[in-house]
Structure formats: C-alpha cells, structure tokens
Amino acid sequence: MTEALYAKVYDTLRSRIVDGELAVGDRLPSQTELAGQFSVSVITVKRALDMLRDDGFVTRRPRIGTVVVSRTPEETVDGERLPLVGYLAPGFHDAFGSHVLLGLLAASRHHAHVTLAVTEGDADLEERLIEEQLARGIEGLILLPSSSQAIPPTVATLLGRRFPIVIVDRTLAGMPVSTVTSDNVAGGRMAAEYLFDRGHTGIALVLSPNEISSLEERRRGVIAAHAAHQVRLDPDRIFTDVRSVIPGSTVTAEQDVAELREFLASRPDITACVTAEYHSARLVLRAAQEIGRRVPEELSIICFDAPPEFVDAALPFTHVEQDQHTIGRRAFDLLARQLGERGLVAQETVPVRIVEGGSTGPAPRQG
C-alpha cells in the first residue's frame, strides 16, 4: 500500500511537470503541504520527491526546497541528472559578451543546463537576480559582475559556504574566488607598442570611469609600454570621462562626443589614441571627424574588441581581440571542477592578440 501511495504522488507530480503545470524554475510546495494535499505521510512524499530528483525533474536545496529543473527525463545523460547553473552578465553584445556566452554554452552542452539573466550593470538588480537564480535551484554560478570594487553580498555569503562560483572578466582582489580573464595588461601594452612601432609618440588613452578591473589593467599596460620606450605618458593625454558607454548612464553619446572634440582639438600633438572599449572608439572617431581630423591619416585609433567587420564596413577598427569563446569555455570548465571539488579556487588568464583594421596608420610627418 505504501509503495502504491508514493508511486501515486510521484506520477501526479511528474505529470504536472511534463504537462507544464509546474514550469522549470517553479518551487514545489513543502513536504508537509504535499503530505496534506495527498493525504499521505511526509515519509511517503519524501520518497516520491527523491524519485523525481533521481529522474532529473527536480533539484532539492536546503532552505530553498524542491525546484523543477527539467520537464523531460531526456534532459539527462546516461540516466544522470544534469546540474542547473546560472550565468549573469550586464548584457550580451557583439563587441563583447555574445561570444563568451557561446563558448559557455558549447562547453556546457551535455554537461549542464544553463539559465541566463541580464543585470544591465545595475548592482541592485544583480543582487536580486542572483537570489532568483538560487531560488530556481542553481547549483553553481558564473558571474560577470557590474563592478570590481564591491562584490554582491549574496556572493560573499555563497563563497563562505564554498558554493561553486566563477567570476568572468574581472579580478577581485583578496577574494578566494575562481576567475577567468583576458590578459588585459598585455593587451594595453600591445596596443601602445603597435602605435610606437608605427612612429607615434603622441599617444592618448581614452577610457570610461567604470569601476572594473579590466580597464585599470589596460591602463597599466599602456603605461608600461610608454616606460619601455622611455616616453612619458602625459596626464593631459589621458581622458577618463567617457560616460555614455557605462550601463545605466544618463549621459548621452552626443555629450561625450562634445567633450572628446574639445579634448582632441586642444591637443594637436596627439596622433593616436588607445581606447579601452570599442564603443568609446566609435565616439573618438565621431569627434575626430567633426573637427576635421582624418582617420587614420592624421589620427590613429586602436581599441579593445570589435564586432564583425561588416558592422563597421567603412572603417573596421584595429583592435585587441579577446578570445571570448575560450573565456566562456574555461569559465564553465572551472565551475564543473568546483561541482566535483567544493572550495577549489583557480585563476586563469587568456591571451589576447592584435587584429589589424583600417583605423591605424603611420604617424603623420611633422611640418
């Protein structure tokens, strides 16, 4: 009789999940509530839930409860339930983001289910979305944080519990957390070296005030290249106020272009710009064109990342290319290792390379 009772509970709940009455991400009632609904004991309910878990329909987490993670048993491999992992990022863009996601999905295929959320660079939204992902039953988290200065409180708590977490494209000083980043210092150095090799010495650095580690690392690389060439990077050639590219900013692109026009017009000795972000490079190009500075004849521009060339068919940017696909794959690989070995911490750095385009040329002749 007891076997028939738990089988009945199992069959009913399974049917509700398969039919979509209980959707992926939904939380089931508590064991006590289910026992009341089915007029059975809590032990009977627990056995039915164990069967649903073993068949890959649900996951069960302390303090959260039982959450639906799959509508079909086919979403398991060789009878083994696949874990549910979360990926949160400010957005998924052609210049940076989309290919990180593709690499992550390629690596997770047949190994995990991935649920996605966009934080829009909003720290409060980021915190809420992490909580929502946890409520859905994720067993690991890959996060591209909105900031490198302040870690979300929930993440700090999870790290204390050795919950599997991998941080992408950011370094968090002093935090025992796995990270996967590009070699941004090398990228900044390579960008400046590329311009020095073409005779430029009046090199400007353009970046946003966004508080993320990758920008500071790129700045350090540019400074290191100047030091190696015994050329002083004049602070007056550093523009750090491109604000429209920051997620959630109320500053318009037109406002940034106006300030960049003034910056370039007042410094005719600048013959080249290293821009730390692709969208900033587009604003520098607009500003140069509006004051009559020809690119690349009178001003060279090199940036980090760029979408496919057809997007900027008139002038594809010379850029430092991050291996985004590898970043995504390695992030998932590190998370998968943590799922098997809680508390594992590793940092990986992915090499970058220069991709030549039409936005750079030799330094203009003086006089």
TrEMBL record:
Superkingdom, natural source: Bacteria
Keyword list, A-Z: DNA-binding, Repressor, Transcription, Transcription regulation
HTH gntR-type domain location: 3-71
Listed InterPro entries: LacI/GalR-like_sensor, Peripla_BP_I, Tscrpt_reg_HTH_GntR, WH-like_DNA-bd_sf, WH_DNA-bd_sf
Pfam families named among the record's database cross-references: GntR, Peripla_BP_3
Alphabetized PANTHER family for the sequence: LACI-RELATED TRANSCRIPTIONAL REPRESSOR, RIBOSE OPERON REPRESSOR
Protein name: GntR family transcriptional regulator
Species assigned in the record: Georgenia deserti
